[in-house]
Amino acid sequence: MTCELPPTPTTAIDWDNLGFKWVDTNGYVKHVFSEGRWDEGEFVRSSHLNIHICAPALNYGQECFEGIKAFRCKDGQVRIFRPDINAKRMMYSADISSMTPVPEDIFVRACERAVANNLEFVPPYGSGGALYLRPLLLGTGPEIGLYPAPEFTFIVMVIPVGNFYKSGVKPVDCLVVETFDRAAPLGTGAAKLGGNYAPVLKHSSAAKEKGYAITLHLDSKTHTNVDEFSTSNFVALTYPSPEHGNQPIFCAPDSPSILNSVTKQSLVQLAKSFGWTVDSAVIPFTDITNNRFEEIAACGTAAVITPVKTIERDGTKTDIGTPATTGEIGAGFQRLFTAMRGIQNGDIADSYGWMQPAEGIRPRKEP
C-alpha cells in the first residue's frame, strides 16, 4: 500500500545549485512538555521560536539535537531514513542533559508531520539532495538556578539540502587536533549535545584555512587511540587478506566518548551483508601510521561517507592506501556508499525497513 503521490518539488528553488544552508520552508513542528505531560503538538508557520530569556537552554546549554534526512524515492514517494534510531539516541542525550526524553512515538510522528507539511521542499529524485530534519530538544521553562528546566520544548525543523558530492566522492586531507580534547572519558561525548560541537569550531575552522577538510580527535586520557572526527564517526577498512576470504575487515573504534552514529550502524549492517568481518575495538593511532588500513573515512548524515587520503599529526603526514594513491574513493567504501544511497533513493530494495513509513508520507497542509 502506498499513499497518493506527494507534491512535486517547488520551482522556487534552484535544485541544481542547492547547498547546505538555511532555506525558509512552510514551518516546523513544536511539542511542549509541561505539568508532567507532552502536548499534542502544533505546526508553526514561522522560522522563529519564542523562548524565555531565563531558559536553561540559553543559560546553561540544556539542549540536545539530531540530524535526519528524508528522500524523494524512485517510486515518487517521500520517506525518512531510520527516524526511530535517532529517537532512541535523543532519549539518551536527553537523559544525559537532565531533560525529559521525547517518547519515540511522538518523535517519529513529529518528524513525519514536519515532512508532510513541507513535501514540496524535498529535492527531486536523482538530484542527490534531501530534506534535512533537525529535531531539537530545549530546556525552555524559566530557571535561574542550577536545576533542570520546569518545561521543555521539542521542535522538528526542516531544510532542503543539495548533493554533498556534486563532482563525485573525493578523498580529503585530515588534521589531528592536539590542543583540545573533544570529550572526557566519562563525559558527554556519546550524547548529541550542542556543547560538544561549539568548542571545536575554532579548531576545525583553523584547520580548514590550512587546507584540511576535517579534523580527528584521539582519546582524551592518553592521546594514543582514535576516537572520532569533529563532525562524524571514524570508520576504516583493512587490506583484504586470505584469512578473511580476501575481503576487508570493517573497523570502528570502541570508545565510551564517541557518538553512536546512525550512519555507522547502517554501514555495519551493510558490511555484514557483504560477508565482511566487523571489528569494533580500540584502534591505536599507530594502526594508521603502520598502514593497517587501505581505506579510512568519516561517516555521518550529511555526506554518508567522506574518504580520507592523508592524516597529519605533529607535522607528520600519513598517506592512506588507495585514496592517497588514486585520489579516488576506494572500492570498499564505494560499494558501501552505493548500497546506502541506493536504499535511501529507492533504487535498491529496502530489506531492512530503514525507509519510513514504507507506504510514503501522506501530504498534509495545516494552517
From TrEMBL:
Cofactor(s) annotated in UniProt: pyridoxal 5'-phosphate
Keyword annotations from UniProtKB, A to Z: Aminotransferase, Pyridoxal phosphate, Transferase
Gene3D superfamilies per UniProt: 3.30.470.10, D-amino Acid Aminotransferase, subunit A, domain 2
GO biological process: branched-chain amino acid metabolic process
Keyword Protein biosynthesis among UniProt keywords: no
Superkingdom assignment: Eukaryota
Protein family membership: Belongs to the class-IV pyridoxal-phosphate-dependent aminotransferase family.
Protein name per the record: Branched-chain-amino-acid transaminase
Species in which this protein is naturally found: Lunasporangiospora selenospora
Lineage, opening ranks: Eukaryota, Fungi, Fungi incertae sedis, Mucoromycota, Mortierellomycotina
